[in-house]
## 1
Amino acid sequence: MRHEKRGNLKMATPHNAANMGDIAETVLLPGDPLRAKVIAETYLEDITQFNSVRNMFGYTGTYKGKKVSVMGTGMGCASIGIYSHELIHFYGVKNLIRVGSCGSIAKDIKLGEIIMAQGACTDSNYAHQYQLPGTMCAIADYELLKTAQETAAEFGYPYRVGNILSSDIFYTETPEWQQWAKMGVLSIEMESFALYCNVARAGVKALGIFTVSDSIVNGEELDAEARQNGFTNMMQVALETAVRI
């Protein structure tokens, strides 16, 4: 069922059981709800769970004394479009930081590097709702991006800043990634375009930060231990960004 934008809400939405005030103004958004649970239990103090509807877990706690929330979004533009819209319009969230993995399509990017999505291309039709007389350029918030870049440099983590592709297709019939690579796109994930559209329309801030977990170019992928260590670097950058803005 499709829902139009609703007015001010004091209680739950169809997808989120939180009450007003339960969610911080800054929220980290992994796709996997179980990763949201791990992030909360690993990095946050004094955590409380505000959502379990559809097993899309959400938690609020503190990091270095600042209130921060983390919530899963599911996979794809449609899913993150719902959850980010509700967080922004119904719960007053101002800063949305997507954290996840991505597949590199650039030959010189190494596994484990951090990608910060300055912009998001897409093969999705998500932006058709705005009835724009042209093509939407979906970009990150500069303040968030600058803070994340400075944080990664401070910690000495390898990172790239550039364009990514938010694709609706995971198992593709054609190697269209090669065409995107020719345009300088660094990597592929599935959600950031919708997130960037939602925040642009609402006048709030977002940034996508990713760990390169595999290379579509050469078929390499991180093993379990390397994924854990690499994601730790990404999470430190995201959390430090959250408390510095």
Note: The helical segments are 33-43, 77-91, 142-155, 177-182, 192-202, 224-244.
## 2
Amino acid sequence: MYEKIQETASWLRERMSTNPETAIVLGTGLGQLASEITDSYEFSYSDIPNFPVSTVEGHSGKLIFGKLGGKDIMAMQGRFHYYEGYDMKQVTFPVRVMHELGIKTLFVSNASGGMNPEFKIGELMIITDHINFFPEHPLRGKNFPTGPRFPDMHEPYDHALIALADKIAAEKNIRVKHGVYVGVQGPTFETPAEYKMYRILGGDAVGMSTVPEVIVARHSGIRVFGISVITDLGGFDVPVEVSHEEVQEAANSAQPRMTEIFREIIKRS
């Protein structure tokens, strides 16, 4: 696997005309941020050696290079999910490649279900911590040389970047919440009882991605900032039916605010 990672990084490096130290993973319904990237060039996942291909509606499947906030960046427009049938090595393969390309900071975004009664649909939740409910750990198996066998996870989401995001949100009059993200395998949305359980355990939002990518990023010494867009609500007295289309619609409406925060953090950090 490590040889494949190096092969993919080498293929990209030969074709890159920029030198990004920042990467962004765009979640469900959040791919429009890619239109904000200037001086861009891109590669389809299907053209990149060893890269998986996204199968989920709303995930375009492109690796985009260019500028955001005046800085060189790379962006994944479409991620890979455990529920698609990939193993964790495949799900986190792009993050391993990012490390080989010299990425120092990773921005992650996702659409998630809110369990905190203070949350509203369309709100942005800055991720302060996570709970891992995936049945397979992304670091299971032979240890990669990018980090220790037993990596510390006391600060999975960078405190300085969170503080900067709060400052930017206040300046721009963007309402943000803080919360704990619960990562689950999917692909079913949660039952009312599951929502309540995750809330009791300390979760504020739940989704089917992000956690594996963050674990591998931290193992590789990459600092992380994450935002969840609250696209549906659950765990309350009245059960609410939710569809993938509704999740995408709610994510779309929140994109300008998330993009503003990402752009300003990149510009100032």
Note: The mean pLDDT is 90.
## 3
Amino acid sequence: MSYLAVENDRRIYFEHHRGGGRPVVLIHGWGANTRCWDTTAPALATAGHEVVLVDLRACGRSDNDFEDVSIATLADDVVQVVDHLELSAPVINGWSLGGAVATAAAAALGSRAGGLVLTGGASPRYTATDGWPFGGTSDDVDGVLAGAAANRADTFRGVAAAVFATAPSSDVLEWIWGMFMEMGPIGDETLRDLARTDLRKELGELDIPILLLHGRDDAFVPFAGAEAAAGLNPHARLVAFDGCGHAPFLEDRDRYLAELTGFLTS
């Protein structure tokens, strides 16, 4: 286990699994933590890749009492981990809200980034706005957070169930729900910030390979939004996962790994 101080004495948790292949940084979604990648990271490491996992602020084993949990700041944390480990041309892979963090981190890294992967990524926008008719509204996000404030357990259980297009086993549902319940309440502000984050310019200007792995039945980030995101950058390629919701790496693991490892070695 490793920790990195990023705000005064407050620390984030990360794991560094060494390998001779392309480095890949895995960034979890809102409320989750590094353990969500437990069916992905070992396969990447076995394939020889250098794998880094990060618990975002207020999530998992990172500290819970940060003052700043904005998307931009979380992205800066990822850059700090990349610099701390001296990673060479890492591919940044973000799931859900982690997709926004990954996009901002890749933009900050610039030519030092090796690629970007958006796994059901909430990027470049999570909510609809002028010129971007995809997603819900800030009021929808406020409604979810109000529900969490009143009844955190039931709200997060509902969110966990909605991740999947097909109902998962009770064990998988409990696993995802348990991760959500570990997030500190300040982490709610990260979702609130996501609702107003716009990374269209950053995504469009990236001069690196970009891969979007997206379920057609995603209940959080509409597939049409992923299509629009891919259209913003000529280096982007979208892979659709039929019958999958918000987590293709859990719902169609073998194909997900085939697409991801192919991208990493290309």
Note: The two ends are 31 Å apart (CA to CA).
## 4
Amino acid sequence: MSLDPVESTRGLLNRPAQLRHGFLDVLGAATSAPVPTVAQHAMNSPLVARVYERLWRPTAFYLASGLTQRAEQIRAASALRLSSTHRLLDVACGPGNFTAPLAAELPEDGLAVGFDISESMLTRAVADNSGPRTCYVRGDARLLPFGDDIFDAVCCFGALYLMPEPFGVKGEMVRVLKPGGRIAILTSYAPHVAPLRQLMTASARGIGLTMFDGHEFVDLFTAAGLIVIEQQTRRAVQFVVAAKPGTSD
């Protein structure tokens, strides 16, 4: 018989958490997510949370990458090798639009933890994308509330370009990943063609988004000691997957 996902997740946390609105909150009711940019303000809006999964996210990323959300989910499950994964962390999970489908790919005793700072998004995740293998946690991705080497797979899809310290978040994702585990990110990509790159970068900066070079995350993963690094770029999006060396590597 599988354990309750909330209690299983509570056992993974390295700090106290209050159960609020169905998710575990390590920040507390009085702590608000920072909203210094237009984009970050939108991600904390209850209205955006209501339309994000079915309208905003599928439309925006199809235009940016040419891939449907279902095609993205299938690619993610394959890259993360979820059929043999027991603990998955989905960083900046939003309303759980990837957390729940990926949880369905885990073994019967698997656990998918969706992590976000937005109360609005997590409230929607609990309402729309809960299940026997899912739990949601509110916290700051710059300091993930987990010990080292906890998760078999870690991912962040469509959020790093929103964050004020994306490379620090990357470091935290690597830290909580077990040796032998896999990490995958989906984020922005600025083509090398100078005029197009300048236009995209300036437009994104205006609403608080970051356009990343094609080499930045590959270089960072390499510097962090990750191996088997693969990158796919398509239009304005890049998908990067890598593995953390195991004890036998």
Note: The chain is about 35% helix and 20% strand.
